[in-house]
Amino acid sequence: MAPGKGGNQTSITEFILLGFGNLLELQILLFIPFLVIYIVTLAGNILITALVVADQHLHTPMYFFLGNLSCLETCYTSTILPRILASLLTGDRTISLIGCIVQYYFFGCLAASECYLLAVMSYDRYLAICKPLHYTVLMNGRICLQLAAVSWMSGFMATTIVAGLMSQLHFCGPNEINHFLCDFTPVIKLSCSDTSLIILVTFILCSIFTLPPFLLTLTSYVFIISTILRIPSTTGRRKAFSTCSSHLIMVTMYYGTLFIVYMLPDTDTHRDLNKFFSLFYTVLTPLANPLIYSLRNRDVKETLRKVIRKCMKLTENQKE
Fold first, then answer.
1. pLDDT, tens digit (0-9, with 9 covering 90-100), for 158-167
2. CA distances (Å), 284 to each of 50, 137, 276, 290, in order?
3. What is the β-pairing status of strands 176-177 and 14-17?
4. Between vectors from CA 235 to CA 229 and to CA 240, what angle results, nearest 5°?
5. In Å, how far from its chain's centre is CA 216?
6. CA 141 to CA 159: how far, in whole Å?
7. If 0-12 CB within 10 Å is exposed, 13-18 middle and 19+ buried, where does residue 269 land?
8. CA distances (Å), 216 to each of 10, 146, 249, in order?
9. What Rg value do the Cα atoms of the chain yield, rounded?
10. Angle 61-78/285-296 helices, nearest 10 degrees?
11. C-alpha to C-alpha distance for 244 and 62, rounded to whole angstroms
């Protein structure tokens, strides 16, 4: 702690992330599954990104956005899990004030960007199913690049403002954060400064940068489901639904847990529940992304088979 501006007040220079409790046995028990999740998440998302880049058959708008999502998930999980793993392994749960704000910044940027990318992917599926004759015109390469760029930039713009205001706050009281990451609400609650401005600005920015992509995603799927139900043949309906089912699962998982975490009242009873559901959209959703798209997507599986066959042939040739 450093001397504060007001009398005997002291400034907090580091926080303690309480995480999942103090039991040593629990820390060791959690380390291995979290390590496995991190390795599988990185490997799966990097593999999908590499397949999308390398295979010409996957150079379509749907897989272009999937590659962006996989790249985002790789960065997203890397802002959270390494810190959790280090804490579980060493028992050191302290994080500096600057480190906490930096973690929040990247976590917030990527979470907001994911909302936009999911909305863009749902819009892509809407055009493919509801406007198939105009799809190639409305979703050409230039538009895809612009939509992806806007998705990434929007998330970073919104969180930059909030993180900037957060860095101006003064912390002088308790320094224990009852969470496994530096999220907005638990950090703001520890501030000794007037937080009314940052709360108002965050609410406005969430309304501008988070609500529109959610409404676009919801509207797209209302039209998609409506169009699919009007297809006369069962085979046609199944085929149309299969092109967006993987994305719909991801959207449901992400927004479902996101709303549970941020809509529940901030009480002692709900805090542990919030922590549990936070694991879904911060840890399990990035893990589920490659599993869902690779296991349910025929094109991705076929591309993966081709890569495996080529690797096997190369190995055989080297042995000869």
1. 899 999 999 9
2. 21, 36, 11, 11
3. parallel
4. 55
5. 18
6. 28
7. exposed
8. 46, 17, 16
9. 22
10. 150
11. 10
Using H for helix, E for strand and C for coil, what is the string for 177-232?
A: ECCCCCCHHHHHCCECCCCHHHHHHHHHHHHHHCHHHHHHHHHHHHHHHHHHHCCC
Q: What's the CA gap between 108 and 183, in Å, rounded?
A: 8
Q: Please, which residues have CB within 8 angstroms of residue 290's CB and are 6 or more apart in sequence? A: 41, 44, 45, 47, 48, 70, 73
- Write down the residue that tokens 């990434």 correspond to: 152
Predicted pLDDT of residue 74: 94
List own/partner pairs for 165-174 with CB under 8 A and 24 or more apart.
165/197, 165/198, 165/201, 166/101, 166/104, 166/198, 167/101, 168/193, 169/193, 169/195, 169/198, 170/4, 170/5, 170/11, 171/11, 171/12, 171/97, 172/4, 172/9, 172/10, 172/11, 172/12, 173/12
High-pLDDT (> 70) share of the chain, %? 91
**pLDDT digit string (tens) for 181-233?**
898 888 998 898 889 999 999 888 888 888 889 999 999 999 999 999 888 88
Q: Tell the burial category of 229 from Cβ atoms under 10 Å away from its Cβ (0-12, 13-18, 19+).
A: exposed
* Predicted TM-score of the model (pTM): 0.87
pLDDT, average across residues 70-94: 91
Q: How far apart are the first and last CA of the chain?
A: 66
Percentage of the chain beyond pLDDT 90 is 36
Q: What pLDDT score was predicted for residue 9? A: 55
